[in-house]
């Protein structure tokens, strides 16, 4: 990964880029590279495909209108993910999101009062999430405080969980998309180019079941088979996805 410099960079940006590259083990470039790279400017940190300069970059933006609208007006506890996690009343839960991606589902859960641990193995995606949380903290510090960001292989982290007990583990592993859409063309296309396939996704289920005190929730496309071929106790469906729920406390 790269941290290209451009005329828009201030000295502060350059110093931040150096610090980010050092902390996440990234390569700092001083010229426009080819392929994928991280760019830091006034809007924040974003992942860009320099082979497609017209394509918009991908960033974690918890302050976007879409994110805030979904949190404030998306039905809150009526959302399928909230039902799947088992949220009731004002009860907050500790949830581990072991495949956070751009953090959108984690943001909804945090907005509903959950403490959300995001475990991300890609240094690039973790850096994007960290930047999103940094900007969120400037506008909504109480909401940002509900997040915990961990960098590591989720399978290993779940097996050796050193933090507070979690009622639920949430999994949304990468899955090939059948239909083209704006999301697939932009964000998922770039993410799949960055992360590749997710061949060890099945390996997430067993440690998640062993760790969660109440349930594991797996988000799947409606046409997809159950993770690891393990049938859930129940499923909550939406138009495009379903949430397979595995109860760990019978």
UniProtKB/TrEMBL annotation:
Gene3D superfamilies from the UniProt entry: Vaccinia Virus protein VP39 (3.40.50.150)
Q: What is this protein called?
A: Ribosomal RNA small subunit methyltransferase J
A cellular-component GO term for this protein? cytoplasm
Q: What is its EC number?
A: 2.1.1.242
Q: Which SUPFAM superfamilies match?
A: S-adenosyl-L-methionine-dependent methyltransferases
Question: What reaction gets catalysed by this protein?
Answer: guanosine(1516) in 16S rRNA + S-adenosyl-L-methionine = N(2)-methylguanosine(1516) in 16S rRNA + S-adenosyl-L-homocysteine + H(+)
Q: Name one GO molecular function term.
A: rRNA (guanine-N2-)-methyltransferase activity
Q: Which residues bind S-adenosyl-L-methionine?
A: 104-105, 120-121, 172
Q: For this UniProt record, give its keywords in alphabetical order, as a comma-separated list.
A: Cytoplasm, Methyltransferase, rRNA processing, S-adenosyl-L-methionine, Transferase
**Signal peptide feature range:** none
Question: Subcellular location, in the record's words?
Answer: Cytoplasm
Provide the top EC class: transferase
Its function, per the record, reads: Specifically methylates the guanosine in position 1516 of 16S rRNA.
Record-stated family? Belongs to the methyltransferase superfamily. RsmJ family.
Question: Which InterPro entries does UniProt cross-reference here?
Answer: 16SrRNA_methylTrfase_J, SAM-dependent_MTases_sf
Q: Which domain of life is it from?
A: Bacteria
Q: Please give the Pfam families that the UniProt record associates with this protein.
A: SAM_MT
């Amino acid at each position: 990964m790269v941290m290209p410099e451009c005329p828009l960079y201030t000295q502060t940006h350059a110093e931040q880029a150096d610090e980010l590259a050092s902390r996440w083990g990234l390569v700092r470039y001083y010229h426009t590279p080819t392929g994928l790279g991280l760019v830091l400017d006034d809007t924040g940190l974003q992942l860009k495909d320099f082979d497609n300069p017209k394509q918009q970059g991908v960033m974690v933006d918890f302050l976007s209108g879409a994110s805030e609208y979904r949190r404030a007006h998306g039905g809150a506890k009526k959302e399928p993910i909230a039902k799947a996690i088992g949220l009731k009343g004002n009860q907050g839960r500790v949830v581990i999101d072991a495949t956070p991606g751009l953090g959108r589902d984690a943001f909804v859960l945090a907005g509903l009062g959950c403490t959300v641990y995001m475990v991300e193995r890609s240094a690039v995606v973790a850096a994007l999430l960290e930047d999103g949380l940094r900007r969120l903290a400037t506008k909504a510090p109480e909401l940002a405080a509900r997040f915990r960001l961990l960098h590591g292989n989720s399978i290993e982290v779940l097996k050796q969980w050193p933090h507070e007990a979690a009622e639920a583990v949430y999994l949304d592993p990468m899955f090939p998309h059948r239909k083209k859409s704006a999301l697939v063309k932009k964000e998922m296309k770039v993410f799949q180019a960055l992360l590749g396939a997710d061949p060890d996704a099945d390996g997430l289920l067993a440690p998640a079941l062993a760790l969660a005190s109440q349930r594991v929730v797996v988000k799947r496309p409606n046409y997809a088979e159950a993770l690891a071929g393990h049938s859930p106790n129940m499923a909550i469906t939406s138009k495009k996805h379903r949430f397979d729920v595995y109860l760990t406390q019978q």
